[in-house]
Amino acid sequence: MSTSYPRAVPRFRRSPATRAQDYEILRLAFPALLALITEPLFLLADAAIIGHLGTAELAGLGVAAVVLQTVVGMCIFLAYGTTAQVARLLGAGRRRDALSQGMDGVWLAVLIGGLATLIGVVAASRLVGLFGAGAAVTEHAETYLRISLLGVTPVLVMLAATGILRGLQDTRTPLLVAVVANVLNVILNVVLVYGVGPAPALGIAGAAVGSVIAQSLGAGLLLWVVARAARRDGSRMRPHLAGVRRAMRAGVPLVIRTLTLRAALLVTTYAAARLVIDDSGTVLAAHQLAFTLWTFLAFTLDAIAIAAQAITGRHLGAGDVPAARAATARMIQWGVASGVVTGLALAAVAPVVGRLFTPDPGVHALLVPVLVVAALAQPVAGVVFVLDGVLIGAGDGAYLAWGGLVVLIAYAPAALLVALGGGSLTWLWVAFAVLFMGVRCVVLVQRARGDRWLITGAA
């Protein structure tokens, strides 16, 4: 059985049922949108502050950021998987079990974070060296990476705790915590990078220290909220080995899915590093800014996907397949409309946004056409993020893992061909938009049209 979806743009004349759907979507998505926007602001703030130190420092941030985003991105299942599991149990009327399962995810985050930090600090030099950047860029990247790795465990704890709250249909609390942490991050970065009052000027190291402090505060606040809810409902808070193993097993397909997507992004940065026109890091700096802005918009579009995870998990946990179908159709409409808006906005600011981050005219010249390509891909990205969220909420991780492999196989050779064939940064981003995002869209739409992902019940 297949289904057809309604028009791609939300109608202003809506039935009562459609208005109820929109209210539920926006109630979850709008706070998630604001919270998700603040997450890439950690890197946007660092880029703006570090970019005025010099092009080499900005390029070094780009290399270190890719490594950090890969480590954290591999563990995104701590948020996504927890959201789906908690939402299913909530839909089945088992709130106490939902919180207990969520706490197992928090303990898993502590375990993974500790191991990732230890391994990352030891291997920092080798990880940075894989990108083959110049000596100055490599030195700055290693400095930033070694310090920032200390914030990995707090970030993973934040992911797991946020997943619990989203599964409980609460996206406002993560928003408040994200705002507090982000404001603190900006203040600390300015003080520690340039030196204000008695604080010494630490340069790029100061940006890393500021981020670690802000991330630790955010993790503490979210843990306090979740622990209070668990105590109120009589849920288990201590680590439960079987529950931690269950959370780990549920996350394996999502880890594979994330690995394939992160591998594609790493290939993109590797290819950009090979498009060298001089030793100043101009191409890599332009790519870093474009990728940071893309990530910012991706988080914006992902707000509807967050709502999709919570809504889909709850409907399927309650056994309501028609409601899950109807919500999916409506969220696709919102995804396309949001992609059109973000695409138009990115195209409008493309000629001037580079000046906010660096005074280098070479970076500006490379950045403009890349951002135009990224703008054109935004409506497709809207569909991709929504359906990704729907299938995660449904627990369809195995299909997402196989789909990620298909995307990687289609995209990676093209990106490497652009780099080795003497192509430009713009053509690299064309390959990214057409093959990486386009193939993802085809894979996800094909799955959503069928019924195999519509598994009901608490498990």
Task: Describe the structure in brief.
With 459 residues, the protein is mainly alpha-helical. The protein is built from 15 helices and no strands.
Beta strand %: under 5%
Number of domains: 1
Overall spatial form: globular
First-to-last CA distance: 24 Å
Rg calculated over all Cα atoms: 21 Å
Helix content range: over 70%
- Tell me about the largest β-sheet: none
Subunit organisation of the chains? single chain
Give the low-pLDDT segments: 1-9
Average pLDDT level? 85
Structural class: mainly alpha
DSSP E strands, number: 0
Structural description of this entry:
The protein has 459 residues and is an all-alpha fold. The protein has one domain (16-448). The protein is 80% helix and 0% strand. The chain contains 15 helices and no strands. Helix 1 crosses helix 2. The chain is globular and about 55 Å long.
Keywords, please?
15 helices; 80% helix; mainly alpha; 459 residues; disordered N terminus; single chain
Tell me the layout of helices and strands.
Blueprint: H1 16-51, H2 55-74, H3 77-91, H4 95-129, H5 135-148, H6 152-167, H7 172-194, H8 204-233, H9 241-274, H10 282-317, H11 321-349, H12 361-376, H13 378-393, H14 397-420, H15 425-448
